[in-house]
Write a structure and sequence with these properties.
This protein is of the alpha/beta class. It has 2 domains: 1-34, no CATH class; 36-174, Leucine-rich repeat, LRR (right-handed beta-alpha superhelix) (Alpha-Beta Horseshoe). It is 22% helix and 27% strand. The protein has 4 helices and 10 strands; from the N terminus they run ααββαβαβββββββ. The chain has helices at residues 2-7, 12-21, 36-49, 63-72, and strands at 25-28, 31-34, 59-60, 81-92, 107-115, 121-123, 129-133, 139-141, 150-152, 172-174. The strands form 3 sheets. Strands 3-4-5-7-9-10 form a 6-stranded parallel β-sheet. It has a two-stranded antiparallel sheet with strand order 1-2. A two-stranded parallel sheet has the order 6-8. Strand 3 (59-60), helix 4 (63-72) and strand 4 form a beta-alpha-beta unit. The radius of gyration is 17 Å and the shape is globular.
Length: 178
Amino acid sequence: MKKVLDGCDFDTTIGVEILIERCLISKEEGTLQMHDLIQLMGVDIVKGEWRDDPGKRSRLWHYDDVLEVLSGDAGTDVIKAIVLKLPNLEEIYICPNAFTNMRKLRLLILHNVHNSFQGPIHLPNQLRWLECHNCALILEFGYGAKKLVGLDMQNSMIKQAPKNLKVLIPLFITNSCM
């Protein structure tokens, strides 16, 4: 978590200490915990941003919302984080240009996602954390400044690394097949 937040230019150490002092989060057994009511408040705030248009919300984590945005190329530069953790491998369609308009996307977590489209998916250069567990995707980064600080591709079924992955430094790579 610290690596992701530091990669987004937040002052992580001081910020986390302040949240702990104000009892908004707690440190338990090496993990940070957030009270359920605070978490629900955050969910309500994000849902209230655009009730009928998930492509204009800052964060997406509900299956239907993520599916609507990624399959319909409906994302905007407001989206900062997408998390889709499926319990089992599932084939979904991700438009090859789904991330084109998501210039401010910082966090992308996909677990157990198989893309039915067989071509590359173009990722934004501002992406800071990419996590694809048990996924079968062809990823490609655009040209320009890369800000990726974390890449976790555990048990991925990716047969080929992105063409311009070598320019992503510093980067911590975790992948059982690399």
